[in-house]
Design a protein that fits this description.
Length: 457
Protein backbone atom coordinates (compact mmCIF):
# COMPACT_ATOMS: atom_id res chain seq x y z
CA UNK A 1 0.00 0.00 0.00
CA UNK A 2 1.19 3.51 -0.78
CA UNK A 3 0.05 6.75 0.90
CA UNK A 4 -0.02 9.36 -1.90
CA UNK A 5 -1.02 12.23 0.38
CA UNK A 6 2.59 12.78 1.51
CA UNK A 7 6.01 13.02 -0.14
CA UNK A 8 7.23 14.00 -3.60
CA UNK A 9 4.34 14.41 -6.03
CA UNK A 10 5.92 13.60 -9.39
CA UNK A 11 7.91 10.69 -8.00
CA UNK A 12 4.86 9.23 -6.22
CA UNK A 13 2.79 9.32 -9.40
CA UNK A 14 5.60 7.97 -11.59
CA UNK A 15 6.51 5.19 -9.15
CA UNK A 16 2.85 4.18 -8.95
CA UNK A 17 2.44 4.31 -12.74
CA UNK A 18 5.56 2.33 -13.64
CA UNK A 19 4.35 -1.06 -12.32
CA UNK A 20 0.95 -0.39 -13.92
CA UNK A 21 2.63 0.36 -17.23
CA UNK A 22 4.88 -2.68 -17.07
CA UNK A 23 1.89 -4.81 -16.12
CA UNK A 24 -0.15 -3.58 -19.04
CA UNK A 25 2.78 -4.07 -21.38
CA UNK A 26 2.78 -7.71 -20.34
CA UNK A 27 -1.01 -7.87 -20.67
CA UNK A 28 -0.95 -6.36 -24.16
CA UNK A 29 2.04 -8.53 -25.00
CA UNK A 30 0.07 -11.72 -24.58
CA UNK A 31 -2.83 -10.20 -26.52
CA UNK A 32 -0.34 -9.32 -29.24
CA UNK A 33 1.23 -12.78 -29.13
CA UNK A 34 -2.25 -14.24 -29.77
CA UNK A 35 -2.54 -12.11 -32.90
CA UNK A 36 1.03 -12.70 -34.10
CA UNK A 37 0.88 -16.47 -33.63
CA UNK A 38 -2.49 -16.90 -35.36
CA UNK A 39 -1.59 -14.37 -38.07
CA UNK A 40 1.77 -15.92 -38.93
CA UNK A 41 1.01 -19.63 -38.39
CA UNK A 42 -2.67 -19.85 -39.40
CA UNK A 43 -3.33 -16.93 -41.76
CA UNK A 44 -5.01 -13.57 -42.32
CA UNK A 45 -8.47 -15.09 -41.77
CA UNK A 46 -7.42 -16.17 -38.28
CA UNK A 47 -6.05 -12.79 -37.27
CA UNK A 48 -9.22 -11.20 -38.67
CA UNK A 49 -11.27 -13.57 -36.47
CA UNK A 50 -9.36 -12.46 -33.38
CA UNK A 51 -9.77 -8.85 -34.50
CA UNK A 52 -13.53 -8.99 -35.01
CA UNK A 53 -13.81 -10.43 -31.51
CA UNK A 54 -11.88 -7.53 -29.97
CA UNK A 55 -14.72 -4.98 -29.61
CA UNK A 56 -16.80 -7.63 -27.85
CA UNK A 57 -13.91 -8.51 -25.56
CA UNK A 58 -13.42 -4.79 -24.94
CA UNK A 59 -17.08 -4.59 -23.93
CA UNK A 60 -16.43 -7.22 -21.27
CA UNK A 61 -13.41 -5.32 -20.04
CA UNK A 62 -15.55 -2.17 -20.06
CA UNK A 63 -18.07 -3.86 -17.80
CA UNK A 64 -15.36 -4.84 -15.32
CA UNK A 65 -13.83 -1.36 -15.46
CA UNK A 66 -17.19 0.21 -14.73
CA UNK A 67 -17.98 -2.27 -11.99
CA UNK A 68 -14.59 -1.73 -10.32
CA UNK A 69 -14.14 2.02 -10.88
CA UNK A 70 -16.45 2.86 -7.99
CA UNK A 71 -14.55 0.39 -5.83
CA UNK A 72 -11.22 2.00 -6.67
CA UNK A 73 -12.51 5.49 -5.85
CA UNK A 74 -14.09 4.43 -2.55
CA UNK A 75 -11.02 2.46 -1.51
CA UNK A 76 -8.71 5.37 -2.38
CA UNK A 77 -10.78 7.98 -0.54
CA UNK A 78 -11.41 5.80 2.53
CA UNK A 79 -7.72 4.94 2.64
CA UNK A 80 -6.77 8.62 2.31
CA UNK A 81 -9.18 9.47 5.14
CA UNK A 82 -7.84 6.50 7.20
CA UNK A 83 -11.38 5.08 7.49
CA UNK A 84 -10.36 1.40 7.63
CA UNK A 85 -13.77 0.23 8.81
CA UNK A 86 -15.50 1.39 5.64
CA UNK A 87 -12.50 0.21 3.61
CA UNK A 88 -12.91 -3.40 4.74
CA UNK A 89 -16.62 -3.43 3.97
CA UNK A 90 -15.97 -1.96 0.52
CA UNK A 91 -13.57 -4.79 -0.35
CA UNK A 92 -16.03 -7.44 0.84
CA UNK A 93 -18.90 -5.91 -1.14
CA UNK A 94 -16.79 -5.70 -4.30
CA UNK A 95 -15.83 -9.38 -4.13
CA UNK A 96 -19.44 -10.53 -3.90
CA UNK A 97 -20.73 -8.22 -6.63
CA UNK A 98 -18.00 -9.05 -9.16
CA UNK A 99 -18.44 -12.81 -8.74
CA UNK A 100 -22.19 -12.67 -9.38
CA UNK A 101 -21.74 -10.28 -12.32
CA UNK A 102 -19.16 -12.50 -14.00
CA UNK A 103 -21.54 -15.49 -13.99
CA UNK A 104 -24.40 -13.44 -15.46
CA UNK A 105 -22.24 -11.98 -18.25
CA UNK A 106 -20.75 -15.39 -19.05
CA UNK A 107 -24.20 -16.90 -19.60
CA UNK A 108 -25.30 -13.94 -21.75
CA UNK A 109 -22.15 -14.33 -23.81
CA UNK A 110 -22.90 -17.97 -24.57
CA UNK A 111 -26.41 -17.06 -25.69
CA UNK A 112 -25.66 -13.94 -27.77
CA UNK A 113 -22.32 -14.64 -29.51
CA UNK A 114 -23.77 -15.79 -32.83
CA UNK A 115 -26.24 -12.91 -33.02
CA UNK A 116 -23.56 -10.33 -32.24
CA UNK A 117 -21.22 -11.63 -34.96
CA UNK A 118 -24.05 -11.54 -37.50
CA UNK A 119 -24.97 -8.02 -36.42
CA UNK A 120 -21.38 -6.90 -37.04
CA UNK A 121 -21.50 -8.26 -40.58
CA UNK A 122 -18.59 -10.62 -39.94
CA UNK A 123 -17.15 -12.01 -43.23
CA UNK A 124 -18.13 -15.63 -43.91
CA UNK A 125 -14.53 -16.90 -44.02
CA UNK A 126 -13.94 -15.43 -40.55
CA UNK A 127 -17.24 -16.24 -38.81
CA UNK A 128 -16.64 -19.74 -37.40
CA UNK A 129 -13.17 -18.94 -36.06
CA UNK A 130 -14.46 -15.77 -34.41
CA UNK A 131 -17.32 -17.67 -32.79
CA UNK A 132 -14.99 -20.37 -31.44
CA UNK A 133 -12.60 -17.77 -30.02
CA UNK A 134 -15.35 -15.80 -28.30
CA UNK A 135 -17.13 -18.76 -26.72
CA UNK A 136 -13.91 -19.96 -25.10
CA UNK A 137 -13.11 -16.46 -23.81
CA UNK A 138 -16.60 -16.19 -22.32
CA UNK A 139 -15.99 -19.42 -20.41
CA UNK A 140 -13.05 -17.77 -18.64
CA UNK A 141 -14.88 -14.60 -17.57
CA UNK A 142 -14.93 -15.34 -13.81
CA UNK A 143 -11.11 -15.30 -13.89
CA UNK A 144 -11.03 -12.01 -15.84
CA UNK A 145 -13.52 -10.32 -13.50
CA UNK A 146 -11.79 -11.75 -10.44
CA UNK A 147 -8.38 -10.47 -11.44
CA UNK A 148 -9.77 -7.02 -12.27
CA UNK A 149 -11.51 -6.77 -8.90
CA UNK A 150 -8.23 -7.52 -7.14
CA UNK A 151 -6.39 -4.96 -9.26
CA UNK A 152 -9.01 -2.25 -8.65
CA UNK A 153 -8.79 -2.69 -4.88
CA UNK A 154 -5.00 -2.71 -4.92
CA UNK A 155 -4.85 0.44 -7.09
CA UNK A 156 -7.06 2.26 -4.61
CA UNK A 157 -4.67 1.23 -1.83
CA UNK A 158 -1.72 2.55 -3.84
CA UNK A 159 -0.34 -0.93 -4.62
CA UNK A 160 0.46 -1.25 -8.31
CA UNK A 161 3.25 -3.82 -7.92
CA UNK A 162 1.24 -6.91 -7.00
CA UNK A 163 -0.90 -6.74 -10.20
CA UNK A 164 2.38 -6.42 -12.14
CA UNK A 165 3.80 -9.62 -10.67
CA UNK A 166 0.59 -11.49 -11.43
CA UNK A 167 0.55 -10.23 -15.02
CA UNK A 168 4.17 -11.24 -15.60
CA UNK A 169 3.32 -14.78 -14.52
CA UNK A 170 0.17 -14.77 -16.65
CA UNK A 171 1.99 -13.48 -19.74
CA UNK A 172 4.77 -16.04 -19.58
CA UNK A 173 2.23 -18.86 -19.22
CA UNK A 174 0.10 -17.47 -22.06
CA UNK A 175 2.97 -17.16 -24.51
CA UNK A 176 4.15 -20.69 -23.76
CA UNK A 177 0.63 -22.12 -24.15
CA UNK A 178 0.03 -20.11 -27.35
CA UNK A 179 3.03 -21.70 -28.99
CA UNK A 180 2.14 -25.13 -27.63
CA UNK A 181 -1.56 -25.14 -28.56
CA UNK A 182 -1.38 -23.34 -31.92
CA UNK A 183 1.93 -24.52 -33.39
CA UNK A 184 2.45 -27.94 -31.79
CA UNK A 185 -1.11 -29.17 -31.19
CA UNK A 186 -2.64 -27.34 -34.21
CA UNK A 187 -5.70 -26.17 -32.23
CA UNK A 188 -6.16 -23.00 -34.31
CA UNK A 189 -7.72 -19.84 -32.84
CA UNK A 190 -9.34 -22.00 -30.16
CA UNK A 191 -5.87 -22.85 -28.89
CA UNK A 192 -5.03 -19.14 -28.53
CA UNK A 193 -8.26 -18.58 -26.61
CA UNK A 194 -7.60 -21.55 -24.30
CA UNK A 195 -4.10 -20.23 -23.64
CA UNK A 196 -5.55 -16.87 -22.59
CA UNK A 197 -8.16 -18.14 -20.13
CA UNK A 198 -5.80 -20.71 -18.56
CA UNK A 199 -3.19 -17.99 -17.99
CA UNK A 200 -5.80 -15.64 -16.49
CA UNK A 201 -7.09 -18.41 -14.23
CA UNK A 202 -3.65 -19.25 -12.85
CA UNK A 203 -2.91 -15.55 -12.28
CA UNK A 204 -6.17 -15.02 -10.39
CA UNK A 205 -5.78 -18.10 -8.18
CA UNK A 206 -2.19 -17.16 -7.32
CA UNK A 207 -3.31 -13.62 -6.52
CA UNK A 208 -5.99 -14.82 -4.11
CA UNK A 209 -3.56 -17.22 -2.45
CA UNK A 210 -0.73 -14.75 -1.85
CA UNK A 211 -2.96 -11.86 -0.81
CA UNK A 212 -4.76 -14.11 1.64
CA UNK A 213 -1.40 -14.98 3.21
CA UNK A 214 0.04 -11.47 3.18
CA UNK A 215 -2.68 -8.92 3.92
CA UNK A 216 -5.41 -9.17 6.55
CA UNK A 217 -7.72 -7.00 4.43
CA UNK A 218 -7.93 -9.75 1.80
CA UNK A 219 -8.11 -12.74 4.13
CA UNK A 220 -10.61 -15.39 3.13
CA UNK A 221 -11.16 -15.98 6.84
CA UNK A 222 -12.99 -12.66 7.02
CA UNK A 223 -16.76 -12.80 7.05
CA UNK A 224 -18.03 -11.52 3.71
CA UNK A 225 -20.57 -8.72 4.13
CA UNK A 226 -22.55 -7.14 1.32
CA UNK A 227 -23.08 -3.52 2.35
CA UNK A 228 -25.93 -1.96 0.36
CA UNK A 229 -24.98 1.61 1.25
CA UNK A 230 -21.43 1.11 0.03
CA UNK A 231 -22.70 -0.76 -3.03
CA UNK A 232 -25.05 2.10 -3.98
CA UNK A 233 -22.27 4.65 -3.60
CA UNK A 234 -19.90 2.49 -5.62
CA UNK A 235 -22.55 2.02 -8.30
CA UNK A 236 -23.32 5.74 -8.47
CA UNK A 237 -19.63 6.34 -9.25
CA UNK A 238 -18.93 3.27 -11.34
CA UNK A 239 -22.12 3.14 -13.41
CA UNK A 240 -21.43 6.30 -15.44
CA UNK A 241 -17.85 5.11 -15.97
CA UNK A 242 -19.15 1.70 -17.00
CA UNK A 243 -21.64 3.28 -19.41
CA UNK A 244 -18.79 5.39 -20.78
CA UNK A 245 -16.68 2.31 -21.49
CA UNK A 246 -19.67 0.45 -22.92
CA UNK A 247 -20.28 3.39 -25.27
CA UNK A 248 -16.65 3.17 -26.38
CA UNK A 249 -17.15 -0.54 -26.98
CA UNK A 250 -20.38 -0.03 -28.93
CA UNK A 251 -18.63 2.65 -30.96
CA UNK A 252 -15.85 0.17 -31.71
CA UNK A 253 -18.41 -2.40 -32.82
CA UNK A 254 -20.05 0.11 -35.15
CA UNK A 255 -16.64 1.06 -36.49
CA UNK A 256 -15.87 -2.63 -36.96
CA UNK A 257 -19.06 -3.03 -38.98
CA UNK A 258 -17.78 -0.28 -41.30
CA UNK A 259 -14.37 -1.96 -41.55
CA UNK A 260 -16.00 -5.32 -42.31
CA UNK A 261 -17.50 -3.88 -45.50
CA UNK A 262 -14.00 -3.62 -46.98
CA UNK A 263 -13.16 -7.32 -46.63
CA UNK A 264 -10.84 -9.67 -44.76
CA UNK A 265 -7.55 -7.94 -45.69
CA UNK A 266 -8.70 -4.59 -44.30
CA UNK A 267 -10.07 -6.28 -41.18
CA UNK A 268 -6.72 -8.05 -40.66
CA UNK A 269 -4.86 -4.74 -41.14
CA UNK A 270 -7.16 -2.95 -38.71
CA UNK A 271 -6.61 -5.72 -36.15
CA UNK A 272 -2.82 -5.46 -36.45
CA UNK A 273 -2.84 -1.65 -36.30
CA UNK A 274 -5.09 -1.52 -33.24
CA UNK A 275 -2.90 -4.07 -31.46
CA UNK A 276 0.03 -1.72 -32.00
CA UNK A 277 -2.10 1.21 -30.93
CA UNK A 278 -2.94 -0.56 -27.67
CA UNK A 279 0.73 -0.18 -26.78
CA UNK A 280 0.84 3.43 -27.94
CA UNK A 281 -2.07 4.54 -25.79
CA UNK A 282 -1.14 2.43 -22.78
CA UNK A 283 1.05 5.01 -20.95
CA UNK A 284 -1.77 7.58 -21.04
CA UNK A 285 -4.24 5.03 -19.67
CA UNK A 286 -1.87 4.04 -16.87
CA UNK A 287 -1.09 7.62 -15.88
CA UNK A 288 -4.87 8.15 -15.87
CA UNK A 289 -5.23 5.32 -13.33
CA UNK A 290 -2.40 6.80 -11.26
CA UNK A 291 -3.88 10.29 -11.17
CA UNK A 292 -7.27 8.80 -10.22
CA UNK A 293 -5.76 7.16 -7.15
CA UNK A 294 -3.73 10.30 -6.38
CA UNK A 295 -6.80 12.55 -6.63
CA UNK A 296 -8.96 10.12 -4.64
CA UNK A 297 -6.54 9.89 -1.73
CA UNK A 298 -5.78 13.62 -1.66
CA UNK A 299 -9.44 14.61 -1.88
CA UNK A 300 -10.07 12.29 1.07
CA UNK A 301 -7.24 14.08 2.91
CA UNK A 302 -8.55 17.52 1.71
CA UNK A 303 -5.27 18.47 -0.03
CA UNK A 304 -6.51 20.40 -3.07
CA UNK A 305 -3.31 22.27 -3.87
CA UNK A 306 -1.40 19.00 -3.97
CA UNK A 307 -3.92 17.72 -6.55
CA UNK A 308 -3.20 20.66 -8.90
CA UNK A 309 0.53 19.96 -8.77
CA UNK A 310 -0.11 16.29 -9.39
CA UNK A 311 -2.16 17.05 -12.52
CA UNK A 312 0.59 19.27 -13.95
CA UNK A 313 3.26 16.63 -13.31
CA UNK A 314 1.13 13.88 -14.85
CA UNK A 315 0.39 15.91 -17.98
CA UNK A 316 4.08 16.64 -18.53
CA UNK A 317 5.17 13.03 -18.14
CA UNK A 318 2.33 11.70 -20.31
CA UNK A 319 2.92 14.16 -23.16
CA UNK A 320 6.66 13.47 -23.35
CA UNK A 321 6.04 9.72 -23.59
CA UNK A 322 3.25 10.19 -26.17
CA UNK A 323 5.47 12.23 -28.49
CA UNK A 324 8.24 9.62 -28.31
CA UNK A 325 5.78 6.83 -29.13
CA UNK A 326 4.29 8.76 -32.06
CA UNK A 327 7.76 9.34 -33.51
CA UNK A 328 8.58 5.62 -33.32
CA UNK A 329 5.30 4.46 -34.87
CA UNK A 330 5.39 7.04 -37.67
CA UNK A 331 8.97 6.03 -38.48
CA UNK A 332 8.46 2.23 -38.63
CA UNK A 333 4.79 1.56 -39.56
CA UNK A 334 5.48 -1.05 -42.26
CA UNK A 335 7.80 -3.08 -40.04
CA UNK A 336 5.29 -3.06 -37.18
CA UNK A 337 2.38 -4.29 -39.32
CA UNK A 338 4.52 -6.98 -40.95
CA UNK A 339 5.03 -8.55 -37.51
CA UNK A 340 1.42 -9.75 -37.70
CA UNK A 341 0.99 -10.69 -41.33
CA UNK A 342 3.08 -10.36 -44.52
CA UNK A 343 0.22 -9.97 -46.99
CA UNK A 344 0.98 -6.84 -49.06
CA UNK A 345 -2.58 -5.49 -48.84
CA UNK A 346 -2.67 -5.98 -45.06
CA UNK A 347 0.64 -4.13 -44.67
CA UNK A 348 -0.47 -1.27 -46.94
CA UNK A 349 -3.76 -0.61 -45.14
CA UNK A 350 -2.24 -1.05 -41.68
CA UNK A 351 0.52 1.43 -42.51
CA UNK A 352 -2.12 3.88 -43.73
CA UNK A 353 -3.96 3.62 -40.38
CA UNK A 354 -0.83 4.23 -38.29
CA UNK A 355 0.28 7.22 -40.37
CA UNK A 356 -3.07 8.95 -39.90
CA UNK A 357 -3.86 8.14 -36.27
CA UNK A 358 -0.26 8.09 -35.02
CA UNK A 359 0.04 11.90 -35.15
CA UNK A 360 -2.66 12.36 -32.55
CA UNK A 361 -1.71 10.22 -29.55
CA UNK A 362 -0.99 13.38 -27.55
CA UNK A 363 -4.70 14.35 -27.71
CA UNK A 364 -5.66 10.93 -26.39
CA UNK A 365 -3.12 11.39 -23.57
CA UNK A 366 -4.46 14.78 -22.47
CA UNK A 367 -8.05 13.53 -22.58
CA UNK A 368 -7.26 10.52 -20.41
CA UNK A 369 -5.36 12.51 -17.77
CA UNK A 370 -8.28 14.88 -17.20
CA UNK A 371 -10.76 12.00 -17.25
CA UNK A 372 -8.59 10.31 -14.62
CA UNK A 373 -8.85 13.38 -12.39
CA UNK A 374 -12.63 13.38 -12.67
CA UNK A 375 -12.89 9.64 -11.99
CA UNK A 376 -10.66 9.92 -8.94
CA UNK A 377 -13.01 12.56 -7.58
CA UNK A 378 -16.00 10.31 -8.22
CA UNK A 379 -17.36 12.72 -10.87
CA UNK A 380 -17.93 10.19 -13.65
CA UNK A 381 -21.05 11.54 -15.40
CA UNK A 382 -19.27 14.26 -17.42
CA UNK A 383 -16.67 11.87 -18.94
CA UNK A 384 -19.56 9.58 -19.84
CA UNK A 385 -21.41 12.37 -21.68
CA UNK A 386 -18.21 13.41 -23.45
CA UNK A 387 -17.69 9.83 -24.64
CA UNK A 388 -21.25 9.47 -25.90
CA UNK A 389 -20.90 12.72 -27.87
CA UNK A 390 -17.48 11.94 -29.35
CA UNK A 391 -18.42 8.36 -30.29
CA UNK A 392 -21.92 8.70 -31.67
CA UNK A 393 -22.08 12.30 -32.85
CA UNK A 394 -18.55 12.44 -34.27
CA UNK A 395 -16.47 9.28 -34.61
CA UNK A 396 -18.87 6.73 -36.10
CA UNK A 397 -20.91 9.10 -38.34
CA UNK A 398 -17.76 10.85 -39.66
CA UNK A 399 -15.99 7.53 -40.31
CA UNK A 400 -19.06 6.19 -42.11
CA UNK A 401 -19.43 9.32 -44.22
CA UNK A 402 -15.75 9.76 -45.09
CA UNK A 403 -15.35 6.04 -45.92
CA UNK A 404 -17.73 6.61 -48.82
CA UNK A 405 -15.46 9.39 -50.14
CA UNK A 406 -11.90 8.35 -49.22
CA UNK A 407 -12.33 4.61 -48.62
CA UNK A 408 -10.40 3.20 -45.66
CA UNK A 409 -8.62 6.52 -45.03
CA UNK A 410 -11.99 8.07 -44.21
CA UNK A 411 -12.62 5.46 -41.50
CA UNK A 412 -9.35 6.25 -39.76
CA UNK A 413 -9.84 10.05 -39.76
CA UNK A 414 -12.92 9.72 -37.55
CA UNK A 415 -10.72 8.50 -34.68
CA UNK A 416 -8.54 11.60 -34.03
CA UNK A 417 -11.54 13.88 -34.56
CA UNK A 418 -13.30 12.10 -31.69
CA UNK A 419 -10.17 12.36 -29.51
CA UNK A 420 -9.98 16.12 -30.04
CA UNK A 421 -13.60 16.49 -28.99
CA UNK A 422 -13.13 14.41 -25.85
CA UNK A 423 -9.95 16.28 -24.91
CA UNK A 424 -11.59 19.71 -25.15
CA UNK A 425 -14.69 18.56 -23.26
CA UNK A 426 -12.73 17.08 -20.35
CA UNK A 427 -10.31 20.02 -20.09
CA UNK A 428 -13.11 22.61 -19.95
CA UNK A 429 -14.95 20.72 -17.21
CA UNK A 430 -11.72 20.27 -15.23
CA UNK A 431 -11.17 24.04 -15.30
CA UNK A 432 -14.74 24.67 -14.12
CA UNK A 433 -13.82 22.73 -10.97
CA UNK A 434 -17.12 21.19 -9.80
CA UNK A 435 -15.33 17.85 -9.37
CA UNK A 436 -13.61 19.17 -6.23
CA UNK A 437 -16.85 18.84 -4.26
CA UNK A 438 -17.29 15.10 -4.84
CA UNK A 439 -15.63 13.68 -1.69
CA UNK A 440 -17.29 10.39 -0.68
CA UNK A 441 -18.65 10.08 2.86
CA UNK A 442 -20.49 7.27 4.56
CA UNK A 443 -22.92 9.03 6.89
CA UNK A 444 -25.64 6.56 5.93
CA UNK A 445 -23.89 3.71 7.74
CA UNK A 446 -24.21 4.00 11.49
CA UNK A 447 -20.94 3.70 13.35
CA UNK A 448 -22.46 1.21 15.76
CA UNK A 449 -23.38 -1.10 12.87
CA UNK A 450 -19.89 -0.86 11.42
CA UNK A 451 -18.20 -1.70 14.69
CA UNK A 452 -20.57 -4.61 15.29
CA UNK A 453 -19.84 -6.09 11.88
CA UNK A 454 -16.07 -5.58 12.21
CA UNK A 455 -16.04 -7.66 15.37
CA UNK A 456 -17.18 -10.58 13.24
CA UNK A 457 -14.20 -10.38 10.79
Amino acid sequence: MQDMTEGGIGSKIFNFTLPLLLGNIFQQLYNMVDSIVVGQFIGKEAIAAVGVSFPIMFLLIALTMGATMGTTVLVAQFFGAKNFQALKRTISTAYIFLFVTSIVVMVLGFVLTTSILKLLGTPADVFNNAKTYMLIIFAGLPFLFGYNSLSAILRGLGDSKTPLYLLIISTIINIFLDLLFVITFKLGVGGAAFATIIAQGISFVLGIYFLNKRNELFSLKNRFVFDWDIFKKSLSIGLPSGVQQVMVSVGMMLLMSIVNRFGTEVLAAYTAATRIESFATMPAMNFSMAISTFVGQNLGAKKHERIKKGVRSTLLMTLVISFVISFFILTFPEFLISLFNRDSRVISVGKEYLRIVGFFYFTFAIMFVFNGVLRGAGDTIVPMLATVFSQFVLRVPISAYLSGIWGTKGIWWGIPIAWWSGMIFSFVYYKIGNWKNKVIRLEEVKKEEVLEELEKF
